[in-house]
Structure formats: structure tokens, C-alpha cells
Amino acid sequence: MHAHDATGGPRPAESVYDLMMRARSLLDGGHPHQAALLLSRAKLLEPEKGSIRELLGRALYMSGRPRRARREFAKAVQIDPANDYAHFALGLACERTGERDRAIGHLKLALAMRPGAEEYQAALARILA
Q1: Which class is domain 16-128?
Q2: In 84, 101, 103, 118, which residue has its Cα 20 to 30 A from 71's Cα atom?
Q3: Which residues on neighbouring strands pair with residue 10, listed in sequence order?
Q4: E runs forming strands in the chain
């Protein structure tokens, strides 16, 4: 059975862009679990897209699944090692899963890439305290 659009013709498959926009809206609206479901579908379509991995990591982290989030952030860092936010988020996920040294390393990297980022500095100071 195929889905059909309003004209009765077959509906095109959801684009990764559409999935990401809907997921962002769900995240902004406080629905990380639903966002994670959409982003998991987007990841299947484009598994090597760092922005999908980063957003999926955020959704998983926000929905209380830090171990899965850590895996997605680690993949985002692998895909784009210069992504300071992915290093920051990976640091937070590592902290949440008890990997303090790894957390500190990624937070220091994020801060080196974006000196003066207050959110990064605050997270690092909190872990080092």
C-alpha cells in the first residue's frame, strides 16, 4: 500500500531536510523523543551526515539517553573533527555517563576551537571543580 498526496498521486518519500526541520521543531517544542524518532529515520537515509548525528545526539541527550547520545556525538566528531559543538556535546554526554577524563578532553578541544564560548567554559569549570 503506497501513500498518496492530495492529488491522488504517490507521495514522494520524506526528504532528509523535511525530517530534520520537523525534528528541530519538535526539539524546540520540548519533544525530544519524537524528534529522535524522526532523526533516526534521517540517519538511515544519510548515515554520514554529521548534522543529523549531532541533532540526533541532542534529542537523545534531552530525552535522557546519554549513552546513545554519546555514540551519535562521537560519530559527528568522527565525520567532522572541527565541529566544536559536537565536541562540547560529546563532553557533556561523557560526563553524564561517568567518563570524566574523556569529557574534559572534548570540552578542552571545543574551547580551543571556540575560545571564549561561555557555555563551554562553564561546563569545563563545573567538571574540574
Answers
A1: mainly alpha
A2: 118
A3: 4
A4: none
